[in-house]
DNA sequence: CGCCTGACGAAAC
DNA sequence: GGTTTCGCCAGGC
C-alpha cells in the first residue's frame, strides 16, 4: 500500500452511507454479520471473513467495512478482527490506539507489540465454525 | 466520469 | 527472507 499513495488520507471518514437511514444489504452487512459471530476471546482475520463470503481477494473491503462497524447498531467487535499476521492493524481506527489492545486483553487475549499472542490458537475460522 | 485512497493478502522482486 | 507491487472492490472528491 505504500508507494502508490502520495499523501495522507484526505477524508473518506464519512461512511455515512452505512447509516441505518436506508442502507442496503451489501458486502459490508455480510462482514458485520460474520464479525458479530466471533466468540469472545477469539479472533479472526479480514481475509478469513472475506474468504467465507466468497470474496477471498476482497480482504481489503472487509477492513473497509469495519470502518462502519462503530456506527452499526449492534456494536461490532472489530477489535477481534486482525490481519493475517495477528497484528492489530486497525488499532489506529479506534478511539485510542490502545483501545483495541485493552479490549482484547479484557477478553483474555494477550497482545504483545500490537500482535495477538497465540493468534493461531485463538484464530476463529468462520468458514469452519460458523458454517 | 476518472483518479485516489484504504483497518488486507499473496505474489513478485 | 525482507521489501515492494499488484490485485480487488467500493466510496469520496
Description:
By secondary structure, this protein is mainly alpha-helical. The chain has one domain (26-130): Winged helix-like DNA-binding domain superfamily/Winged helix DNA-binding domain (Arc Repressor Mutant, subunit A). The chain has six helices and four strands. A hairpin with a 2-residue loop joins strand 3 and strand 4. The protein starts with 26 loop residues before the first helix and ends with a helix. The protein binds a DNA duplex (13 and 13 nucleotides) through residues 1-7, 9-12, 14-15, 17, 26-28, 45-47, 50, 55-67, 69, 78, 81-85, 88-93.
Quick overview of this protein structure:
The protein has helices at 27-36, 46-52, 59-66, 99-106, 119-122, 126-130; strands spanning 44-45, 81-82, 111-112, 115-116.
* Biggest sheet record: 2 strands, parallel
What ranges have pLDDT less than 50 throughout 5 or more consecutive residues?
1-24
CATH class: Mainly Alpha
Structural class label: mainly alpha
CATH architecture group name:
Orthogonal Bundle
Can you give the helix content as a percent range?
25-40%
The radius of gyration computed from the alpha-carbon positions, rounded to a whole number of angstroms, is 15 Å
> Would you count the extended β strands for me?
4
What's the layout of helices and strands?
Layout: H1 27-36, E1 44-45, H2 46-52, H3 59-66, E2 81-82, H4 99-106, E3 111-112, E4 115-116, H5 119-122, H6 126-130
Parallel strand pairs: 1-2
Antiparallel strand pairs: 3-4
Helix pairs in contact: 1-3, 2-3
The chain binds a DNA duplex (13 and 13 nucleotides) through residues 1-7, 9-12, 14-15, 17, 26-28, 45-47, 50, 55-67, 69, 78, 81-85, 88-93.
